[in-house]
Specification:
The chain is an alpha/beta fold. It has one domain (5-236): Rossmann fold, CATH 3.40.50. The chain has helices at residues 15-26, 38-48, 60-74, 98-125, 149-169, 212-223; strands at 5-10, 29-35, 51-54, 79-82, 131-136, 174-182, 184-185, 196-197, 203-204, 209-210, 232-236. A seven-stranded parallel sheet has the order 3-2-1-4-5-6-11, with helices on both faces. Strands 7-10 form a two-stranded parallel sheet. It is globular. The termini are far apart. The mean pLDDT is 94.
Length: 246
């Protein structure tokens, strides 16, 4: 086993996922990343020394194949950062398209379940038994943004998934925690500089913070012995409109 162990980061080709994969690698973890675009996965893996796996987390069969490849490559799995997810276009609740709703549930919720389920099985069966799953929640796991019902609903559901895995994982030395991130500066949040819709109907710029602080938080959670767990951690821009939202 490498000093940190063997880790998988889903959605590892950009933003928080890529930054975290780099940080874990620097801490001694042997890191695998996955993403849907094969060329990008291979390019980043070659550049950073990752194991690259092409996978669509919304496809249960694709996830199963990825874990079969991980088992063949690593032999075991000690950490999963269950990070893959997506945003939806802002829509008033009554105008949300059914197809968009299904796509959000398929990626953000079903995809997280498929990955966690395969990781749980692998960690339960390996020797020594156990491992850690860190789910990427969101501030929206607690409080919604306006016109974001599909995203908010999936992120609330991640909290239930985290708690269920934590409970069922006790018997197998599997720890599960959740990191809830508010306005980390990535390509996905760059639009916030121009302004985001607020609960009172105004549009206002929102502060962001360096994604490096998210990486440090995940590394702390990942570095704990399996006898200890961060169940929930919130990392956010200090002045973002979350406390007192609405």
């Amino acid at each position: 086993m490498t000093p940190g162990g063997y880790a998988l980061v889903t959605g590892g080709t950009s933003g928080i996922g890529l930054a975290t994969a780099r940080g874990l690698s620097q801490s001694g973890w042997q890191v695998a990343i996955c993403g849907r675009r094969r060329e990008l996965v291979e390019q980043l893996s070659d550049a950073h020394g990752f194991v690259g796996l092409t996978c669509d987390v919304a496809d249960a069969d694709s996830v199963a194949r990825m874990f079969a490849g991980l088992k063949e490559k690593f032999g075991r799995l000690d950490l999963v950062f269950n990070n893959a997810g997506r945003f939806a276009p802002a829509r008033p609740f009554g105008d949300i398209e059914i197809e968009v709703w299904r796509e959000m549930v398929d990626t953000n919720l079903n995809g997280a379940f498929y990955v966690a389920r395969e990781a749980f099985r692998m960690m339960r069966e390996q020797q020594p038994q156990g491992g850690r799953i860190i789910n990427n929640g969101s501030i929206s796991a607690y409080v919604p943004r306006p016109q974001a019902a599909s995203y908010t609903t999936t992120k609330h559901a991640i909290t239930g998934l985290t708690k269920a895995i934590s409970l069922d994982g006790r018997a197998y030395n599997i720890a599960c925690g959740q990191i809830d991130i508010g306005n980390a500066a990535t390509d996905m949040t760059s639009h916030m500089n121009a302004g985001s819709l607020q609960a009172n109907g105004t549009v206002a710029p929102e502060p962001t913070f360096d994604v490096a602080h998210v990486v440090e938080a995940v590394r702390y959670m990942a570095g704990l012995p399996l006898s200890a767990n961060v169940q929930f951690m919130t990392v956010m821009a200090t002045a973002m409109p979350y406390i007192g939202r609405g």
